[in-house]
Amino acid sequence: MTTEAETPRLTMSGIVKRFPGTVASDGAELSVRAGEVHCLLGENGAGKSTLMKILAGSYQPDAGEIRLDGEPVVLNSPQAGLAAGIAVIYQELDLIPDLSVAQNLLLGHAPAVGPVVRKKKRLELARAAVARVGGDFPVTATVRDLPIAAQQLTAIARALTADARVIVMDEPSATLGENDLLKVFEVIRSLAAEGRSIIYISHRMDEVMEIGDRATVLRDGRTVGVYDIADTDPGELVSAMIGESRELVRTTQRPRPEGEPLLEIRSVRIPGVIDIAGIDVRPGEVAGLAGLGGAGRTTLLRALFGDTRAARTVRLGGAPLRASSPAAAVRAGLALVPESRKEQGLMLGLSVARNAAVTALGRPPWLLPGRTGRVRTAPVLKDLGVRFASPDQPVGKLSGGNQQKVVLAKWITRGGVRVLLLDEPTRGLDVGAKADLYRQVRELADSGVAVLLASSELNELTANADTIWVLHEGRNVARFDPRNTSENTIAHTVITGVTP
Q1: What is the pTM of this model?
Q2: Where is the ABC transporter domain (predicted)?
């Protein structure tokens, strides 16, 4: 790491960016040294994404200056950002799904002789980049066919194919299992050791404390503090982010749900993928699904929702559940908040109000009357704390966390939900947004909804779930009561598949 007297690798000074109805960046400051991992923290809407898009050249600031190695630069396009040595790995991956891994990794700078791409050389370079991030998938695979975790590793590997001085990683661990995350941390440390600067955006304090050297905290578009992580308590960072002391999650004190199960998963089986049996969820119960990446949590939820073919014996309210399609599942009273909100949960070009109203009003979203959608969804969006300039704003313009809230809002607005399936619902959400979301989930459970919650954040499951099922290699191997079981015991079972 450089000394204090040396010129920073990157400085962003007095950065201002206005959008209609809001100031996204209000004089923000950021200084990053060569060879350091610098964490950028803040709630959704604090200005992190805007600041990084300005750094990438996607947005142009209304005021302020950017310097690289002491020299002022003008980054007026993404191409200018890349040429300056800035690589950004966005939380919502911007890979081209119908191209291969190798094509994605070297898109725009593939080895070529004149106009002819040297395909063997491209494969060679791609394999080296994937191996560096610990990937074990073929570079000839089509990106669409890869698991989300492998797609995340592909995006990280792509940044390594460019000779970047500054690498921005926006929630790189959001879709990664523990082993994949350890590999990514090794890559980050090796890049920093080479003198590259890493800007690491995360809402997971354990990651920040482990990987970061310093942290800059943004709030309401302004820089409110810069911290040496080794000398800082995580609680101090959280307080700086939200401006007050506030718990991430609170263990519910409501009585434990009893009575007959509402959802009975007697058997859900896909040969060689999952074989799950004996999971029951009562009205008002929040049942957690814990497991490593690939354990089968997402597959189970999608099978229940009719989005994945499986041999199923499932009962809902004492009667067989015959949800052979998502539409049938919705009619039966099931609702799914999917892991990939952009591909499965939202119509990004349509407004916030139309997305939130689409399931409630039962018409194609482009035919929904604007005023009806706004009126119907306004109280739900407010209660969830969704931040937007206008209900007519395209939902694709919102931050990732606010987009996730809109996915939940469309089911709350509709009503009639009997079973809520949540797949990594807090992925990419800040501490305040997580607290808001879990408060809303508990209110839905209190109203009699059965909740099946899949999350890789074990501390969130132990704080919010009434019971936790552990899935391991496609099977449910254990059930725990988080009120009287230590988190370490559950974590051991998640990793090994065996109860200690």
Answers
A1: 0.58
A2: 10-245, 249-498
